Amino acid sequence: MPAHPPSALPISLRGISVEVAGTTLIRELSLDVGGGEVLGLLGPNGSGKSTALRCVYRAMRPTAGAVLLDGESLSEQSIRDTARRIAALTQDSRAELDFTVEEVVALGRYPHQNGSARLTGRERELCREALRRMDITHLATRSVLTLSGGERQRVLMARALVQEPAVLVLDEPTNHLDVRHQIELLGFLRRCGLTVLVALHDLNLAAATCDRIAVLRSGALVACGTPAEVLTTGLVRSVFGVDATVVTHPRTGVLQLLYDMPTADRPIETDSPTTPEGIAP
Amino acid sequence: MRTDASPDLRLFAEIEGAGRRAGSLVLPLIGLTVALALSVAAGIALGPTVVPLGEVLRFLGKALTGGEIRADEVTGYSIVWQVRTPRVLLAAVVGAGLAVIGVAVQALVRNALADPFVLGISSGASVGAAAVVVFGLFAGLGVLALSVAAFLGALVATVLVYFAARSAMGLTPLRLVLTGVALAYAFQALMSVLVFLSPNGQAAQTVLFWLLGSLGAATWASLPMALVGVIVAVIVLMYLGTAMDVLSMGDETAASLGIDAAGLRRWLFALTAVVTGLLVAVSGSIGFVGLVLPHVVRMMVGSGHRRVLAVAPLAGAVFLVWVDVLARTLVPPEELPLGVITALIGVPVFLVVMRRRGYAFGGR
């Protein structure tokens, strides 16, 4: 085990396609995320964000193409080797058993352990530090089944940190979080110095957090660039089917989208672009 | 061996009040070991004829050291050594095995309501056993015919469930449970037909008794295979303990922590199938132990699989030894099926403990 966490590593998706039971979920998706960069993945429901992330944290194998971590293809390393360098906050993390918070967080050391489940002194310190950073030290001995959704999300985030990853993959991490914890989490992603690949639904939070933004639609990349380059009225209209006005935050200068709410005389149009048209069965 | 006792006592938290889940396991393990030794001795002593404990220990000593016994002691000696000792030991082994396999199956299908029989394995074994009773299959094997047929039935069922449940996504928990339950119904139907069409009037009763579980046929010969199976299961599962913790968090989380959930599940399935087959072959289908014991143990020591697996075999062994004692002594000279007693004791105890504050399983 390295004495220090590996520094942020670049990760690349090279033309990955995912097909499940004859349905194409992702088609020839290519993305490059530099070391220490925060890349946001946006797109309507079902656009393939989660599928792309699954390929990165090895819950899915791309049908074609490769995911490269620091230039090395993930498919050529063990799933455990990947877990030592890529940590993920997934969507399926619903525990059935009443583990305590510290038990769940300690599992983040699993990929680094050999046989023994005993934590070393350094690992204990790592776990305590993760609890402090996620502001959940007071919950350490609570059952995870008794936590609120937001508390649980922070527990899982702490577990990901304990993995000492070089890359963090997060699938809608702000789900269930209140505004303060949303902002704290995303602020943390900016400061943590890791390479971050994060799927988000909130375009404004994405604009404020991400160095670059990639937009998916029907499993294909439609735009990639800085928030200002990508989040235009036209793109938001065509990808999300929402009319928005782009303004800049008066103090921070960060791009903000103001959405037009549908009204009786201006309903959302029915040719919703979220339907996966153009996908060959 | 580690010198520092329990698998993981307090993990890393600095705050106090970790309570039941973080305490040392040393005392519970010592307590349960002593309880098991006493239970085995009591189990040998108790029965339609009560053998005084001193006699029991003396006979056991003689049997183990090869000492001489007097002619007037032969009856007592053979009751203790030939009849009760193998039976009580088998009760302990089967109880330990069912508890451990219960833990494994609940992790395997990620469902707290699963037990070793939810995968259809025991129903397959029942078909094998019924075939022996009704058709006199494997008559050449003598008393072992029932066990061998039951084990083969269990293996056939396992293979059927495995291939029926397999999909492009691997062996998913829900498909496993659904397939197991569906095939269990099919096997039960098949067995009912066998019994119904049987020209042998005794068949129905024999099959029913076997279905509800019994250690009445226990001999020294039925011990070794079950014992080896249970020991292997405990060792392998202890080794996989932390991986099972991770598996219970969901397949995607497991992947992100470096575990191939589908692969781990295949191994767990194979292990539980073989060991369940071995247990069912010697004791029939004893329900509730595999469902209830894992929960009772979790309530005592928390959900970490290593901790649960350290305690569950001892707890299961003690439990089933006493269940068997009750089965033999409640309505002498008749014997009650074990499944009846495990249900009568297990269900109320389970409901009471479950309703206690502070234990949540399967979500709230």
UniProtKB/TrEMBL annotation, chain A:
UniProt-recorded name of the protein: Iron complex transport system ATP-binding protein
UniProt cross-references to Pfam families, sorted A to Z: ABC_tran (PF00005)
Keyword annotations of the record: ATP-binding, Nucleotide-binding, Transport
Residues of the ABC transporter domain: 11-243
Keyword ATP-binding found: yes
UniProt organism field: Actinokineospora iranica
Entry annotated with the keyword Transcription regulation: no
One Gene Ontology MF term: ATP binding
InterPro entries: AAA+_ATPase, ABC_transporter-like_ATP-bd, ABC_transporter-like_CS, P-loop_NTPase
UniProtKB/TrEMBL annotation, chain B:
Gene Ontology MF terms in the entry: transmembrane transporter activity
Biological process (GO), any one: siderophore-iron import into cell
Pfam families, alphabetized: FecCD
Matching InterPro entries: ABC_BtuC-like, ABC_transptr_permease_BtuC
Membrane topology label: Multi-pass membrane protein
Highest taxon listed in the record's lineage: Bacteria
TM region positions: 25-46, 88-109, 116-138, 144-164, 176-197, 203-220, 227-247, 267-296, 308-330, 336-354
Entry GO terms, CC: plasma membrane
SUPFAM superfamilies: ABC transporter involved in vitamin B12 uptake, BtuC
Residues in the signal sequence: none
Keywords: Cell membrane, Membrane, Transmembrane, Transmembrane helix, Transport
Compartments where found: Cell membrane
Similarity annotation: Belongs to the binding-protein-dependent transport system permease family. FecCD subfamily.
Protein name listed in UniProt: Iron complex transport system permease protein
Species name: Actinokineospora iranica
Source taxonomy: Bacteria, Bacillati, Actinomycetota, Actinomycetes, Pseudonocardiales
